Amino acid sequence: MEGHDSQLMHRAMADTLDRVIADIRGIQSSARTTGNFQRPRWPMIVLRSPKGWTGPKVADGKEVEGTFRSHQVPLSNPAANPQHLPQLEAWMRSYRPEELFDTGGKLRAEIADLAPKGTRRMSANPHANGGELLRDLILPDFRKYAVAVTTRGQKAIGDTRVMAPFLRDVITLNESQRNFRVFGPDETISNGLGAVFEVTNRQWQGDVVAGDEFLAQDGRVLEMLSEHQCEGWLEGYLLTGRHGLFNCYEAFIHIVDSMFNQHAKWLKVTNHLKWRHKIASLNYLLASHVWRQDHNGFTHQDPGFVDVVVNKKAEVVRVYMPPDANCLLSVTDHCLRSKQYVNVIVAGKHPSPQWLSMDEAVRHCTAGIGEWEWAGHKGDDPDVVMACCGDVPTLETLAAVSILREHLPELRIRVVNIVDLMKLQPPKEHPHGLNDEEFDAFFTRNKPVIFAFHAYPWTIHRLTYRRTNHDNIHVRGYKEEGTITTPFDMTVLNDMDRFHLAMDAIERLPQTGEKGARVKSMLAEKLREHRRYITTHGEDMPEVRGWTWKA
Amino acid sequence: MEGHDSQLMHRAMADTLDRVIADIRGIQSSARTTGNFQRPRWPMIVLRSPKGWTGPKVADGKEVEGTFRSHQVPLSNPAANPQHLPQLEAWMRSYRPEELFDTGGKLRAEIADLAPKGTRRMSANPHANGGELLRDLILPDFRKYAVAVTTRGQKAIGDTRVMAPFLRDVITLNESQRNFRVFGPDETISNGLGAVFEVTNRQWQGDVVAGDEFLAQDGRVLEMLSEHQCEGWLEGYLLTGRHGLFNCYEAFIHIVDSMFNQHAKWLKVTNHLKWRHKIASLNYLLASHVWRQDHNGFTHQDPGFVDVVVNKKAEVVRVYMPPDANCLLSVTDHCLRSKQYVNVIVAGKHPSPQWLSMDEAVRHCTAGIGEWEWAGHKGDDPDVVMACCGDVPTLETLAAVSILREHLPELRIRVVNIVDLMKLQPPKEHPHGLNDEEFDAFFTRNKPVIFAFHAYPWTIHRLTYRRTNHDNIHVRGYKEEGTITTPFDMTVLNDMDRFHLAMDAIERLPQTGEKGARVKSMLAEKLREHRRYITTHGEDMPEVRGWTWKA
């Protein structure tokens, strides 16, 4: 389609659209009647019309219509420029307002009648208001996928690997609704979600060669090694009334920061439009995270997507860092039921310790934050709070607590675990926020808090700076130190390992006196021993690899 | 190039490379001798070889070589799997180590001799160690582009528009070195940098049509409406020993978050490699910023790139928010001289007030932070500190100070302006950081600080939470409120306007008593008046549009 005569172009466009729609219907009908799902050659219209078509032809002596000058405001200053005003008038009159409006300035009825009616109106068309088409997912009971935790700290196969059969069954249960998809770069298996391929495939219209696995013309998984494409697909899928989950390496989700920003802004604005129905939440599962990129190295370590996310309006963003598989199951179920949010879930895929029974996990995730009384000392008056958020920080915190309990048994330690990061913000900043009394009940008003955090440590300060005890909160997290090394060394390089955490606590507890100083110097030696051991053996010390929680 | 017989493929690859290099030399020679700069069809090699070529053919009964299974680790567990170990041995032996190493396990001299020598070694090739090729830019004296500030607060043509002739002359002075380029989406003119086109063009090998401007086969500006492409071009340009500046809309620089992350990580790592020479800094000029996106609306408002930047290692990141054109000139000069950093400069393009003479600007920018004694009350014991960082926050702060000085003249107000954001961090977190005594000297130890900030307010808390007076720092900034409205209303929607800032101060100054309460209620009425006025007139109140600083 190319031209500049508007009457000829109108006719040609109408003819082209008719032809294209006939082509599309032909392809659909062929697929539906003959079962030919070969990738069709969908029609594409290329329209080339003059830029700024029908606008001012010339302004200030320079060509405008058909040139780059018509890009923004072709007549820059009609209020002050005596030449621009008549040009503006002539331009506006070229639309022949006398044919469109009656003498009172009202749109003529026969013109108004041309507009589509009912659901053919742009904003009322359910395809543009996807919430109207939204049907809740049919979800299996996530509890039945639980790890049976008989011993606290027992290792499971990897948190996402435990959760994957739940996703698999979500796919099966919604097969007839056809309204759930899993999106991701080529990492669905690598992220531990391979179980979905027991019941579905990657949708794939390209060639299939011998040996390919899980590729089919129909499948509920969409993979392409382009985070942009995955995000765009998912946003379109949600906006048209369906549900989905985007699984991605944590560091590389930054690729879609800008797309996330726009989606979050869209959600915020539509929250205040009554006629817009809610759509399903945009769910991110960041399953290959900063602490276990030891074989990929520094390039794969960036937990900062959370910082981009929490810049957006609190009413639309949620961040979850489940400490184990049962918590991941509970959180995933919650996110798939939710609407009109962006949910970020960070979870590991490597075998790691399991802490909570399913009943405990449900209670913990529903609260979003909890004291783990079994790990510390019950009671109102702890000497120190050991807080953790994220799977690896939870492991290191509990290992640090073990050290402190063994060597300084007189210390009263409170262990607090955070699943829902937004619990830390004041309630006037985020609807999930604890009020100050609740916050103080966990973190005390004046005791040291050693906080091991999954992402950048300053994120915790940013969320908690208004709290009573903020000055005593000491956070460890990722601080851009990492390379290709052992898993435990990743935590050591960032001072978030069990030895550093225990030393951090002792430093803030002068009452531990000389005994504390001796424990500290033992821990400093442990760090040197760690360094020597991994340099020699290329793997972590047996006492680290084989560490288990002693009840 | 396609095949699987390695001997045939080696020969064919060598032939192909010879042919391709001859083609490239032919194109270059034709351009250099005949002056034919038409876009050539550069050769491209498409190589298709089996994936995992020469690795294990089959593992665990499944094909590996030539399939997706060879993507990561084809033999997963030779230490424990008795079938994998002999396979691994056979694979390793296929490289015929007995021909490569002598009986002592040392690489044979004739093999070692095949490696390139001197600067042909990969790491020693200056094209891969661009710092070796780096030549300092020849810079004009930035002072000669100064706005002559005869009255504080006088309006200039727009800060980037004042600075643009400096960039223009950088281009001219380095024309023969050919080592400076300006990169950006199609916004170099829109960002106020049009003056560069007085001496150069956009480099453009495509078709040129009548009416096109500033397109030529040779030019120092590279534009493409792809932030990714601009970032990639600039990184490559810097890594090969040249200098550049990327101008971009602030909200859309998030598009390259992930690319920035990798460049910053590269800088951090290479800082610790002695053989790597320093390269020129990556300079961002974010010139169409959140506070003046009033006609573009909410989608164009996101000042959060700074949060991504300050997550990276302090040794490589710098953030500057010059309050006026003379400061922008000073900061730009500094950034173009610097090496091995990422510099982010945020500046406006709209006519805005000028505060400092060039001498004052140089002193202010060199310090990075300063008390503006002319705007407040000299002396050691202020009642309140009014702090500002960014051009629009500075304007609103000074307008708020005017209000307070007029209505509550007995108040002692200190005005502090921040150019270099990293001054706020503790020195152990960032090399630019003020020490605590210096910080307290600006912000006091116990007086209220009303801080108007260009970006998200919590960024300031994150930088200052360790400071003595942090509990009294009250920050206003962008909090995701915005739409298509007037420029001043943008600040009102985010509570960062002069009226809110003055009210914020009064609220924290109980000594203003009943008089303060009356001023507050007058200001609240001003905000209602503003709302009524813009709803009726579609532009800001005359007293806002026409506001000037009274000395």
In words, what does this structure look like?
Two copies of one chain form a homodimer. The first copy, chain A, is of the alpha/beta class and 551 residues long. Chain A has helices at residues 6-34, 84-93, 97-100, 109-112, 159-173, 227-239, 257-270, 305-310, 325-337, 358-367, 391-407, 436-443, 458-464, 487-493, 498-507, 513-537, 542-545, and strands at residues 58-59, 62-63, 180-184, 202-203, 215-216, 221-223, 243-249, 282-288, 317-320, 342-346, 369-371, 384-389, 413-418, 449-453, 473-476. A six-stranded parallel β-sheet of chain A has the order 6-3-7-8-10-9, with helices on both faces. A five-stranded mixed β-sheet of chain A has the order 11-13-12-14-15, sandwiched between helices. In chain A, strands 1-2 form a two-stranded antiparallel sheet. Chain A starts with 5 loop residues before the first helix and ends in a 6-residue tail after the last helix.
Keywords:
homodimer, alpha/beta, 5-stranded mixed beta sheet, 17 helices, elongated
Low-pLDDT residue spans of chain A: none
- Main interface by residue count: A-B, 37 and 37 residues
How many strands in all of chain A? 15
Bulk shape of chain A: elongated
Helical residue percent band of chain A: 25-40%
First-residue to last-residue Cα separation of chain A: 75 Å
The largest sheet of chain A has its strands arranged as 6-3-7-8-10-9
| Beta-strand fraction estimate of chain A | 5-15%
Q: What would you call the structural class of chain A?
A: alpha/beta
Mean pLDDT of chain A: 95
Let me know the largest β-sheet of chain A.
Answer: 6 strands, parallel
- Annotation field: number of helices of chain A: 17
Task: Please give the oligomerization state of what you see.
Answer: homodimer
Taking all Cα atoms into account, the compactness measure Rg of chain A is 30 Å
